[in-house]
Design brief:
Structural class: alpha+beta
Helix content: 40-55%
Oligomer: single chain
Strand order of the largest sheet: 4-5-6-10-7
């Protein structure tokens, strides 16, 4: 489309290079303008403008084709209507609200409930269904959604490698990581394998505990224990966490009604970052009546910051994950005034009923806090130019930092209130929630690690079967056991078709760096105005106008380390823990 043609404009490239190669002109520019010129010249080269006409035309075609493949891949997931039919007996153990207003179909003369294979339904079945056969049926159906996406991913991997080769890179991973904080595939593999070495011993202990829980349950029911499979993971990790922390996840959800939690989280962001967030009533200039519109100002009213649009509730064919899109970037106009940004958060939470609001799980509330982190990252960036975009890994770091609030009693009690009584979440329940954080964490984090290694594998060596290799890496790195089930979960790994191809390791880098940043500056005051002002000034405001590593080091006063992250999941690193690079 237009963007591809613009980014391949030979005349614009020549003009940029003329400035870059003119020492007098470059030295007369301020640092932000210099970075813009360097950034533009690099992006033109990464787009292939310097190639011969035939190769340039091929790269342009690849970019357009990749855009189509990525759109189709994500659309297939969002429009997937696959389901399984299960009887009330098969769904024994599910909470009462699961059955409310659920469609019923006849199957072999038996009334069965329609269970969508989307995450919201399947996660509940996998956690609560007492029947292993039911859990397996639900898991296999969920894990085999959108089989047509495997061919799209395979084609995308091939085209990415071809493009990278045309541009002179050894692999697509090398091309993708050049603009990131991690810089190259070898550094990713080193980071991920270092984590595997640290996490695997603890993960094996966690797996042994899951086996013990399932064996006890199976023997009590007169069944033979054959092992822990992937359809067991949610159920027994929840049981292990509850056993160690005495945590009732159903009780926790009662303090996370979306309609009550959202204003409190927004207020916490506002007080920490020095903002005033005001909801606009009756806004008609949006794409759906359920979209909420907020306007954001400086806390003292001295300046308008930007607009936030929240589209939170499910509807047919809507994107199902929590995601943020910057609709309009902020930048400095030619007359010196400022174009303010507009950013949208899209989710697919179930609509609340008249009797019960939508109660978020703790994990869903964490996702909401992180998505809002992206929103305020977009709004608070105040660079001169809109086109100097942040690296994906840096965006993830700054957005993820405030998810630490979700484990801090002082933060939770500001917005987590009982949906019926409006009483704040009790200190004792906060303590049990915090105690539930570490159990199972090694297994959970290894799942992020294996996806990062899978991403690097397929984007370094294009010869892998993208479907089977996903399962192989999952089993080898993260102890995932699919038993006799043939599954194709790579077909729904949307991040690899949404801008994180070659960059999935960003999530682990972000987990480590953001934990360090919060622990270092907010541990003693979870909404410290001083630390919030520093975070805004040093991390958010510069945007892409300077090297992200510089921004993080200025905020911390040093390079980040993995110590706080490893401690949070139950590991106790020695004093020489290697820096996050």
């Amino acid at each position: 489309g237009f963007a591809v043609e613009r980014d391949m404009h030979a005349g614009a490239f020549a003009a940029v290079r003329a400035v870059l190669n003119n020492y007098d002109e470059m030295s007369g520019l301020d640092p932000e303008d210099q970075r813009l010129v360097e950034h533009m010249e690099k992006q033109f080269r990464r787009n292939g403008v310097q190639l011969g006409a035939e190769q340039r035309q091929r790269v342009s075609w690849i970019d357009k084709r990749l855009g189509k493949l990525e759109i189709d891949f994500v659309r297939n997931i969002s429009q997937d209507k696959s389901c399984v039919l299960l009887s009330c007996q098969e769904l024994d153990g599910l909470p009462a609200e699961f059955f409310s207003n659920r469609k019923v179909k006849l199957s072999d003369g038996i009334k069965k409930l329609v269970v969508a294979t989307r995450p919201a339904d399947i996660k509940l079945v996998l956690q609560h269904a007492t029947s292993e056969a039911t859990r397996k049926t639900a898991y296999v159906a969920h894990a085999n959604r959108c089989p047509e996406n495997i061919a799209l991913l395979r084609e995308a991997v091939d085209l990415r490698l071809e493009k990278a080769t045309l541009l002179g890179y050894a692999s697509y991973a090398e091309y993708a990581l050049e603009d990131s904080m991690i810089k190259n595939p070898d550094a990713v593999v080193e980071m991920e394998m270092d984590l595997v070495a640290k996490l695997l011993p603890l993960a094996r202990k966690e797996m042994a505990q899951l086996c013990a829980l399932k064996r006890e349950e199976q023997e009590a029911a007169g069944l033979t224990f054959t092992g822990i499979y992937e359809w067991d993971y949610n159920r027994y990790t929840a049981q292990a966490a509850a056993q160690q922390s005495k945590l009732d996840v159903g009780q926790v959800k009662e303090f996370f009604a979306l309609e009550m939690v959202l204003p409190g989280i927004l207020q916490l962001y506002a007080s920490t970052l020095g903002l005033n967030i005001v909801e606009v009533d009756g806004c008609s200039d949006v794409w759906h009546p359920r979209v909420q519109h907020y306007r954001v100002w400086e806390a003292d009213g001295s300046a308008f910051i930007g607009d936030v649009l929240l589209d939170l509730y499910e509807r047919p064919d809507k994107y199902q994950e929590v995601a943020v899109w910057p609709i309009r970037p902020g930048f400095e106009r030619e007359d010196g005034s400022r174009e303010t940004p507009v950013s949208a958060l899209v989710a697919s939470f179930p609509e609340p009923t008249a009797a019960v609001p939508h109660l978020l799980s703790h994990n869903s509330a964490i996702s909401l806090v992180q998505a809002l982190g992206h929103i305020f990252q977009n709004l608070c960036a105040k660079s001169k130019w809109a086109c100097c975009k942040l690296p994906r890994d840096y965006m993830t770091i700054s957005a993820q930092m405030f998810t630490q609030w979700m484990w801090q009693p002082a933060a939770l009690r500001t917005f987590a209130r009982h949906y019926q009584t409006n009483e704040p979440i009790p200190e004792e329940l906060c303590a049990r929630l915090a105690a539930a954080r570490a159990p199972g964490s090694a297994l959970k984090e290894l799942r992020q690690v294996f996806r990062g290694l899978y991403d690097i594998d397929i984007h370094t060596n294009g010869n892998f079967d993208v479907r089977s290799h996903y399962n192989e890496v999952a089993a080898r790195v993260a102890l995932v056991n699919n038993g006799d089930a043939d599954v194709g979960k790579a077909a729904t790994l949307a991040h690899l078709m949404e801008g994180y191809s070659g960059l999935y390791a960003s999530f682990m880098l972000a987990a480590m760096a953001s934990s360090d940043m919060f622990e270092s500056r907010f541990a003693t005051d979870i909404a410290s105005p001083r630390a919030g002002a520093d975070f805004r000034a040093e991390v958010l405001q510069p945007g892409g106008s300077r090297d992200p590593a510089t921004s993080i080091e200025r905020f911390l006063g040093r390079q980040p380390t993995s110590r706080a992250f490893l401690t949070s999941i139950g590991l106790h690193p020695v004093s020489h823990t290697r820096d996050v690079e």
